[in-house]
Amino acid sequence: MKNIFQSTDLHFTYRNQPESGNILNGLGEEEVRRPRQIFHGSGFRKLEWEKLELFFLMTMPFSLFIRGMISRLQLRHADGKIAKNKSEINDISKRTQELKTVAEEIGARAIGISKISENECYKDYKAPYKYAISIAYPMQFDVMKEHVTHLGGGLETIRAYTEITRIVVELAKHIRTLGWPARAYCESADILHIPLAIKSGIGELGKHGSIINMDLGSDIRLATVLTDLPLELDEPVDIGVEDLCASCRRCTSDCPVDAISDEKQMVRGIEKWYVDFDKCVPYFSKTYGCGICIQVCPWSKPGRGPSLSQILLAKR
Amino acid sequence: MSSFEDRYVISNPSLWQRIYRDIALFTDSLMFLFMWLRKGREIRLALRQAEKENKKIVLEEHLGE
Questions:
Q1: pLDDT tens digit sequence for A133-190
Q2: How far are the Cα atoms of A31, A120, A169 from residue A126, in angstroms, in the given order?
Q3: What ipTM was reported for this prediction?
Q4: Domains in chain B: boundaries
Q5: Which of A42, A156, A210, A230 would you label with A186, given CA atoms 20 to 30 Å apart?
Q6: Cross-strand partners of A226
Q7: Any idea what DSSP says for residue A221?
Q8: CB proximity A314 to B under 8 Å
Q9: Are A38 and A24 in contact (CB under 8 A)?
Q10: In B, which residues are within 8 Å of A54 by CB distance?
């Protein structure tokens, strides 16, 4: 069955619309600065677009709301007891490989390591540890294809979040048993998962504002573990995303609210792909988290990524 | 106002810190669930009515100014 996206008719509105999310996000700003949360927060903060987020949460069916809460509860174990005996690091490369193997055994499908800087943290947040382990976990393509913008799509999204939360919580716990501090971050955290994942070679930024991984496409969820355990860093990758996004119009034409631009834009001093917040987020709030753009992306079709990348890179 | 991390994530916690954290988190979660049941029901009903009548609900009327 081919999915029919929900209509763009919105039956809710602000009396006094908050300041444009695009302005708050720094669209058009030439100077580099850190972003701050304006819609999804991590709990109990006053945000400019908080009422819309509350509306999003309050209008969810119980099946979705309760799963989201359970997923969140896991994060109380994001940090914890550190084993007293710190394991010695003789071979950083070997230790990094062992840790990646553990992450894969727990369920991670793509892993990358980078050093976190203040630009990968929201304003006023200081990362407690130096190294960032970025993790990606895929959503089920067939489920999203059939249910995106409907309840089934929301349920699949929250399933992926619950699973990736479990993975990062377990990975952080594993590192702490080695005697090193580690903290797991998932969903709307105080750090920026996408820039970290790009820096660590998980993938490249796509036109739809989400990351694209060569094997998993863009129908994925990200989470991060921060630690002081010394690790070998990964490098950013070039899999040809820029080449494809420059000419592909799939996400721009399928987005029912025209939130995706064909041109890169200046955002907080960096020219990059940007999704119009004011157009995207109200529809996102109506449709259980939407997800059309990452679902229709050519990279998301299972098994297609590696050959697509090969063709794009060969054309240069 | 503080983030989820500030409130519930503790590095190297003692047993008492963990117990206190768990009680606080479960209490806050129950309050949030109660909000979904009470306030959420009001909003969901208003939204359904607005959809039927092709009108719009005003967020501030349900969620405060």
A1: 999 999 999 999 999 999 999 999 999 999 999 999 999 999 999 999 999 999 888 9
A2: 21, 10, 20
A3: 0.94
A4: 4-63
A5: A230
A6: A132, A183
A7: E
A8: no
A9: yes
A10: 63
Structure tokens, B64? 């405060």
Q: Which residues pair with A191 in a beta bridge?
A: A121
Do the domain assignments include residue A210?
A: yes
pLDDT digit string, tens, across residues B19-61: 999 999 999 999 999 999 999 999 999 999 999 999 999 999 9
| Number of structural domains found in chain A | 1
Of the candidates A240, A238, A243, A215, which has an alpha carbon nearest to the alpha carbon of residue A111?
Answer: A215
Q: Count the Cβ atoms, other than its own, within 10 Å of residue B52.
A: 9
- Are residues B60 and A15, on separate chains, in Cβ contact within 8 Å? yes
Decide: residue A247, CB within 10 A, 0-12 exposed, 13-18 middle, 19+ buried: exposed
Asked if residue A281 belongs to a domain, the reply is yes
Option in B7, B21, B57 nearest A12 (CB): B57
Given A15, A60, A75, which is nearest B4 (Cβ)? A75
Assigned domain for A233 exists: yes
Question: Which residue has 């995303």 as its token pair?
Answer: A241
CB proximity B14 to A under 8 Å: no
Amino acid, res. A276: D
